[in-house]
Design brief:
Blueprint (H helix, E strand, L loop, with lengths): L1 E5 L11 H15 L3 E7 L12 E10 L4 E11 L2 E7 L1 H4 L16 H19 L5 E5 H13 L11 E6 L7 E2 L4 H4 L12 E2 L2 E3 H8 L2 E4 L2 H7 L9 H6 L4 E3 L27 H13 L10 E8 L5 H14 L3 E8 L1 H13 L4 E5 L3 H10 L2 E4 L9 H7 L3 E5 L2 H6 L13 E3 L4 H17 L1 H12 L5 H18 L1
Parallel strand pairs: 1-2, 1-6, 2-5, 6-7, 7-11, 11-12, 13-14, 13-16, 14-15, 16-17, 17-18
Antiparallel strand pairs: 3-4, 4-5, 8-10, 9-10
The protein binds adenosine-5'-diphosphate (ADP) and alpha-D-glucopyranose.
The site of adenosine-5'-diphosphate has 18 residues, from helix 1, strand 13, strand 14 and helix 12.
């Protein structure tokens, strides 16, 4: 099949979260199954083109928006065999960041920026003669692709037979904007109805995408169930339920070329399940780098996260001081986002020297160090569509402590104190108490049930969440989309 991915993020070029990991890895896994995949994304000003060179490919390219034609240029690069096309358009992408300015304020023209990206992606297929069987959109940013195919391109020789698939990575971000942008987006006023794009007088990108897409999926089976309920669906459950079996959940994979302690070039020492001595070296290095007391026998709990309420880090904030005051344990925390949470976690090391270390910012190398050097990894998410870090943790023999929600529930097996089976520690209630007691449970296992720890580490490292499995599931979704079209 020929598949065109349209997305706002893709590793290694631009990333704020797991969306980039998925868009970076899934195309390559699909290519290995024999498909031809291209990725179209913005040429953000922040992309490091020295490190990731790209070449001019096409200019100018005219893109019809609803009421005007925009002229852009296209660059290209090879991402391990999957071609990526970058849309250069300075008015929209020639500024810092992806979605917001340095103060975390969303750019006000985001609907135009990503509506434009979406139409540019479709136009590019036409201009280069790429006849996609599938146009694969990701999140609200490119969700409108499904609608544009049906509204504008249904009769096009290149795009007319393409089926659309929309992957929802996070249903809380729907792209809801003022109807002032509607003319520019070119979606036709006849479609501005509550069963399509209209949402309390505004435009809802994700809803429109869901309605028009031939297949919709999200990134874990449990999150697919949760989003079909009023609490989990953030207003879109009825539209997802309308899709019937055209809405499914597929667990993300892990890019083991980047996340494997046996070959990871970023960590201080390499190790495997058979020989964990390198992990002890990583732990020591992590303790030194985060200014923690260097002690091989004190468990380290890692955090790598966007600091937003979705991740439950305000709950951890309520629990963490009680934890370090009553348990012999350390924290290594990496994150950025909400300014209040940044200030809280950023100040903890000064108040708990040697016991809590933190780095506020985005740092890929430190993320790898924390995965490798910690004993546990905590994700107390309020909701989690899939979550990648807990799957990385498993591979690094770093036992996840997670709230049983979405993909966290699907990928972590609960510890059984009778047998020592399981791969992590799960709790259900979204509360500081539940976090406190579950961390206590993990820490007591560390000190008192060493054989169980060893058994769990071995079980965790043996888990296989490779992309190949997910790619095969996407193959089926593509077939279903073609049949449904
Ligand atoms: P989400 O996409 O909701 O943020 P995921 O668990 O799917 O959650 O993916 C998060 C990805 O972003 C992981 O690859 C993680 O390592 C990375 N990440 C998050 N915050 C940081 C940070 N501050 N520094 C480096 N990497 C980070
Ligand atoms: C979103 C979700 C996260 C998921 C990622 C990739 O950012 O919050 O749970 O792993 O997308 O699908």
């Amino acid at each position: 099949m020929k598949i065109a991915f349209l997305a706002a993020e893709c590793v290694p070029y631009a990333k704020t979260g797991g969306l980039a990991d998925v868009v970076g890895a899934l195309p390559q896994a699909l290519q290995r199954l024999g498909h031809e995949v291209i990725v179209v994304m913005p040429k953000y000003a922040d992309i490091n083109t020295t490190r990731y060179p790209m070449r001019p490919f096409l200019a100018p390219m005219g893109v019809w928006m609803g009421n005007t034609e925009e002229w852009c240029a296209v660059y290209t690069a090879d991402n391990n065999g999957a071609p990526v096309y970058f849309i250069e358009f300075d008015r929209y992408f020639g500024r810092p960041g992806l979605y917001h300015d340095a103060n975390f304020n969303d750019y006000l023209d985001n609907p135009r920026r990503f509506g434009f990206l979406t139409r540019a992606g479709l136009q590019l297929c036409k201009d280069i003669g790429f006849k996609p069987d599938i146009v694969h959109a990701h999140d609200w940013h490119t969700a409108l692709a499904a609608a544009y195919l049906k509204i504008w391109h249904w009769n096009d020789p290149l795009l007319g037979r393409a089926a659309s698939v929309l992957t929802i990575h996070n249903i809380a971000y729907q792209g809801v904007y003022s109807a002032d942008h509607y003319d520019y987006l070119g979606l036709q006023w006849g479609n501005f109805t509550s069963d399509k794009f209209e949402d309390h007088g505004r435009i809802n990108f994700l809803k429109g995408g869901i309605v028009y897409a031939d297949m919709v999926n999200t990134v874990s089976p449990t999150y697919a169930k949760e989003t079909r309920t009023p609490e989990g669906g953030y207003g879109l459950a009825p539209y997802l339920n309308n899709k019937g079996d055209r809405y499914v959940g597929i667990l993300n994979g892990v890019d083991y070329t980047r996340w494997d302690p046996a070959s990871d070039p970023l960590i201080p020492a390499r190790y495997s399940a058979a020989d964990l001595s390198g992990k002890a070296i990583c732990k020591r290095a992590l303790q030194e780098r985060f200014l923690l007391d260097v002690a091989p026998d004190i468990p380290v709990i890692g955090v790598v996260s966007r600091l937003v309420s979705q991740k439950g880090l305000d709950l951890l904030a309520q629990a963490i001081e009680g934890i370090v005051n009553t348990m012999r344990v350390q924290f290594a925390i990496l994150g950025s986002g909400d300014k209040g949470l940044e200030a809280f976690y950023g100040n903890l090391p000064a108040r708990y020297p040697g016991r809590i270390g933190s780095y506020i910012g985005y740092n890929d190398e430190l993320a790898h160090w924390i995965e490798a050097g910690s004993d546990f990894f905590i994700m107390p998410s309020i909701y989690e569509p899939c979550g990648l870090n807990q799957m990385y943790s498993l591979k690094y023999g770093t036992l996840p402590i997670v709230r049983a929600t979405g993909g966290l529930d699907d990928s972590v097996q609960q510890y059984d104190e009778a047998s020592g089976a399981g791969t992590g520690f799960k709790f259900y209630e979204p509360s500081a108490h539940a976090i406190y007691y579950t961390v206590g449970w993990a820490v007591s296992t560390y000190y008192d049930r060493k054989l169980h720890m060893h058994k769990m580490i071995q079980a965790a490292m043996a888990q296989d969440f490779s992309w190949e499995r997910s790619a095969r599931a996407y193959e089926q979704v593509y077939e279903q989309a073609l049949a449904a079209r």
